[in-house]
């Protein structure tokens, strides 16, 4: 089986690194449906205490990748290709519409904040990227883009779809972050132009490209 031992550098952000290791292992098919993840075993494999393992499993339960049962512990429930199709197709439709409706209501302060976030993401070097920082910046960027949409319900539905895998896809698709950065640049340009239709289209493409990359990971597991 793949060597999951963490390096000293990994321990700098311990819980995040542990969660990332386990998430990637589940999505790449290292575990069977229904297999137990035993805290003591994984603490030994990763060279950490049980606490970050316990916290990682709680996070993975929120993402729908494990189910924690009394007396049995964490049971693997891998996300399927169909789950990815559903989540990302819905996100593309709803977020595309949300940013289209949001754009006329964004003010100069919003645009400046988007530019700051975009610049911060662009500064991160892909070969040694701080993925956790990128994830946080990316989530804020998307949130501001759709913040001006006047439809209340669409925000609730999108927030629900963002729970689970979507915020963590940068940790799975590090090699494709340059594509995301280019798409963010396009989004920012369309915001400055006031072109809501083009913004909608690039947002849909951005989300569906991520869908396709995740499905590739699952298909090659």
UniProtKB/TrEMBL annotation:
This is GntR family transcriptional regulator. Signal peptide: none annotated. Keywords: DNA-binding, Transcription, Transcription regulation. InterPro entries: GntR_C, TF_FadR/GntR_C, Tscrpt_reg_HTH_GntR, WH-like_DNA-bd_sf, WH_DNA-bd_sf. GO terms for molecular function: DNA binding; DNA-binding transcription factor activity. SUPFAM superfamilies: GntR ligand-binding domain-like (SSF48008), Winged helix' DNA-binding domain (SSF46785). The keyword RNA-binding does not apply. Residues 12-79 form the HTH gntR-type domain. It comes from the Bacteria. SMART domains: FCD, HTH_GNTR.
């Amino acid at each position: 089986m793949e060597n999951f031992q963490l390096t000293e550098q990994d321990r700098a952000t311990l819980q995040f690194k542990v969660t990332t290791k386990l998430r990637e292992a589940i999505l790449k098919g290292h575990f069977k449906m229904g297999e137990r993840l035993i805290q003591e075993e994984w603490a030994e494999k990763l060279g950490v205490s049980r606490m970050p393992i316990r916290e990682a499993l709680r996070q993975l339960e929120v993402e729908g990748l494990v189910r924690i049962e009394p007396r049995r512990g964490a049971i693997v429930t891998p996300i399927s290709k169909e789950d990815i199709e559903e989540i990302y197709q819905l996100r593309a439709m709803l977020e595309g519409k949300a940013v289209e409706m949001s754009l006329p209501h964004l003010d100069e302060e919003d645009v400046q904040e988007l530019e700051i976030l975009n610049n911060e993401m662009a500064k991160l070097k892909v070969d040694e990227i701080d993925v956790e920082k990128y994830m946080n910046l990316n989530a804020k960027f998307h949130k501001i883009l759709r913040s001006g949409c006047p439809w209340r319900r669409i925000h609730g539905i999108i927030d629900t779809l963002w729970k689970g895998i979507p915020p963590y896809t940068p940790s799975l698709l590090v090699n494709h972050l340059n594509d995301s950065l280019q798409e963010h640049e396009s989004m920012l340009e369309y915001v400055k132009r006031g072109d809501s239709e083009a913004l909608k289209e690039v947002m849909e493409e951005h989300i569906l490209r991520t869908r396709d990359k995740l499905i590739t990971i699952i298909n090659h597991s």
